[in-house]
Amino acid sequence: MRHVGTIASRELRSLFVSPVAYAVLTLFVLLAGFFFLSSLLQFEEYVLRMQQFQYFDQLKELNLNDHVIAPFFGVMSVVLLFMVPGITMGLFASEKTNHTDELLLTSPLTMWDIVLGKYLAAAAFVSLLVALLALYPAILLLYGDPEVAKTLAGLLGLWLVGLAYAAIGGFASSITRNQIIAFAFSFVLLLVLWMLSFLADLGAAGGAIGAATGFSDFLRWLSTAEHFESFVKGLIDTADLAYFAVLVGTSLLLTKFAVESVRWR
């Protein structure tokens, strides 16, 4: 594990030496601020409309979690889909481009040392992004009364989504030496995983993809959006936790195989 920590710290340092990390952080914070403010303004407009038409019963049912925090988390989970591949695209591809992969692969380090070390660096960066996101709902605590437990569950869901994205992005980077290709491949994989639940719903409605209920349910189970939604609702289910654990574990295993295949060529 000592080697894993060394590789992770080395990868983090190299990440922050390049402008990519700062570009991702800046863009992420700006987008988060924009979407958070948009959610707040929409909520305010909705409240004013309810007061104008004297819908006092419906007004009592309004809350910050369902009308501000949940939409905000939903949008930011999609933003992560764009941001994380930008961080992971160089994890392995840059080593090949700089011809340092041979030194790494011929070192006494094990495959798991390399894969886990690089993944932990990406996971640490994802954790930083989610920690920054936590500041926005924290602002609401100063002026409102959002449900803390429900908010924390949503943040946990975002964190798990980000960790899964990082693992998949690392795999995409391990099978190519071109960082642009790694970014594109990672983005496509993440987009497909995200859209599976929507495809299942469309198929069920149109009688095409979801004609078989079992297959439709399987597509939903594969979708990251489906499992993330439970966390946003404040539900922490072991099935959802297991899904993300399996997704991360499978991606890391595939990454190990991909890197290992290079060593034996």
Q: TL;DR of this structure?
A:
This protein is an all-alpha fold and 265 residues long. The chain has one domain (2-263).
Structure description:
The protein has helices at 2-17, 19-52, 56-61, 64-88, 93-97, 101-105, 111-143, 148-174, 179-206, 213-222, 224-232, 238-263. By secondary structure, the protein is mainly alpha-helical. The protein has one domain. Helix 4 (64-88) runs parallel beside helix 8, helix 7 (111-143) packs antiparallel against helix 8 (148-174) and helix 9 packs antiparallel against helix 10. The chain is globular and about 70 Å long. The model has no long low-confidence stretch (mean pLDDT 85).
Alpha-beta content class: mainly alpha
Outline the low-pLDDT stretches: none
Strand residues, percent: under 5%
What's the number of structural domains?
1
How many H/I helical runs? Answer: 12
